[in-house]
Write a sequence for this structure.
């Protein structure tokens, strides 16, 4: 999953391990004094499900990139001085400890970088058509908290 060489926004979904270090390095640019990187990893439990052994993500792939681009556009509208913004998500099998999602935001100052990164992960989770299935001691089931995929109008304050 190579980084975009000619863009300030890196959006992708991939069955391959996410390049966390490369995302952080890519997001660091001389005009920005702050980089905030969020990494969501597969953990060994879920509500009511101890012993989770892996996650599997399915996506409506034809729509995910467009939704992530919309999230990035919305973030840039809120924080016009953002430097680079990355929104990456795994699909397929994700083993314990592996990154399932990476969001990075760089900005001249930390407040905008923190706020934009938080907005990026929250909006990705709310709007992207990506679903999680958990494998655990009791079998394989969709996550207990299935999410409603929201439109951007529904998630804006």
């Amino acid at each position: 999953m190579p980084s975009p060489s000619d863009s300030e926004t890196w959006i992708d979904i991939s069955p391959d391990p996410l390049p966390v270090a490369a995302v952080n390095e890519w997001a660091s640019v001389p005009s920005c004094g702050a980089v905030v990187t969020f990494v969501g990893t597969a953990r060994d439990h879920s509500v009511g499900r101890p012993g989770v052994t892996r996650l599997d993500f399915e996506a409506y792939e034809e729509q995910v990139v467009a939704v992530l681009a919309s999230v990035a556009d919305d973030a840039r509208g809120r924080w016009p001085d953002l430097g680079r913004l990355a929104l990456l998500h795994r699909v397929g099998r994700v083993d314990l400890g592996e990154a399932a999602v990476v969001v990075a935001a760089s900005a001249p100052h930390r407040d905008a970088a923190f706020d934009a990164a938080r907005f990026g992960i929250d909006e990705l989770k709310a709007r992207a058509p990506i679903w999680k299935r958990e494998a655990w001691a009791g079998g394989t089931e969709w996550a207990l908290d299935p999410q409603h995929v929201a439109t951007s109008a529904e998630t804006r304050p």
User: Anything to note?
Assistant: Strands lie at 9-14, 34-41, 45-46, 49-50, 54-59, 85-90, 92-95, 99-107, 130-136, 139-142.
